[in-house]
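Predict structure. Chain length: 93.
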Amino acid sequence: MPELSIGDAMKNFLQKSRLKNGVRTAQLEEIWKEMMGEVIARYTDKLQIVNQKLFIKTNNGALRNELMYQKLQIISLINEKMGAGTITEVICT
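Prediction complete.
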């Protein structure tokens, strides 16, 4: 059995477990604040990645419209931070 570093062992474990989505969501929330700023993050109620789709929930109609116009930029920035192919679509609700 080959030796693994702790980091590699953790990555393998997360890829095989259901914890991966929770870890990705926590990572996404931190990146979201950094990317979009405190004000937009404050008006964003929920972020979730399901099947490479980023679901953004907000009750602010103006923000929802702005996020829809910025879809391609959001996809690019998140994939840059979290790895290529992390998300392919943005859905605002």
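Summary: Helices lie at 6-16, 19-36, 38-43, 61-69, 71-82.
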